[in-house]
Design a protein that fits this description.
Order of helices and strands: EHEHHHHHHEHEHHHHHH
Strand content: under 5%
Largest sheet: 2 strands, parallel
Number of strands: 4
Strand order of the largest sheet: 1-2
Shape: globular
Low-confidence stretches: 1-34, 36-50, 348-386
Amino acid sequence: MKRILTLCWLVLCGLCLVPATGALSIPATRTAPPCSSNPPIPSGPRIHEDLSFERSPTEIETKIRQTLKESDRDLQRLLQASVTPCLSDSLETLDQLKARVQELEARYDFLQDAGASPKLREAAAAASQALQNYQLQTFQLNARLYAWLLKQADSRAEANLSPSHQRLWQLTKAGFENEGLRLANSKQHVLKEKEERLARLTNLARRHIAKDRGLIELSHEALKGLPSEQLALLPHPRPGVCSIAAADDALYHQLMRTLESASTRQALLKTRYQRAMQSNGQNLLEILRLRLEIAHLLGYKNWLSLRLQSSVVGDEEHAFHFLNELEARLHETREQEKLSLASFTHGQPLVLGNIERALFLSQEYREHETDEKMPLLFRESTVLPRFLDL
């Protein structure tokens, strides 16, 4: 299952030793006892245990070649085992194989934003795209693997699965079917082309966002609340004006915590989350069009229904139930902070928080004049749309 946490194109050798399409012939095997106690487990260290990062495009390419070679070898070992493992063991092994590649992709998603040089960031972006294509071909469009799992998943095998393995099997099967393996060959080809184009456009949009530093010029008055020694370190294109890169995580979060002006924080947030709007405009329209076409091809009414069906959320009803609960809790938080503000302004002991927090709330209250206009007070909004990650 896909790992979480809230991100070109190398040509690699040996990307797919297991055929993704073609005949569904299954090697002759003999059935194992009820469940093998020693399923084939992928070899090699887990990616998240390796804390060092590659420092050159060559190192990135070497790392990918090694990881994908091991992945292909372990998948072949699973499919060609003389004793067919039980369904639960097969699912666990396949899940670990996917995790190995997904963790490496997450590694390069980070590196394409945080790499020390433009060449390293470009190589990381290309590597991330290559890993996405590998997962698509090796795990989700692999008709042989799909047929091999279906052969194991008879009614008795499914009935013997634990609840967690049943959920894993549902997600695994949905992953194959959402890639069109139940479609006719001609429609599978169309789906593959659309998905590959969608992946390219999505990655390109992310690259545009990564390159746009979100520069905004702010006066010293607008930056009131930032310590003077830190203010002096900021770039000054002209006297009394600072240039701020809203994409700089450390600087952005510090400003959102310390600046007194709500309008300045609002401008920073808007600049940060609207980066690359001009360069991405046409790309985003094309992404929306491709998403809807893919969803319709697979029998869903829209992209949201498709994505939720194979996620832990399950469906739109559960998603909206969560959002409604979230809204209620945010309202409760706001009411508590208003109570804290009222206690402070009337000279009573604080109900929540401390003196510094109350001063901050009092400033917010004065700037917005009425309770109704006072915004939710968070370090930054935690409910911003993550369009490209949906």
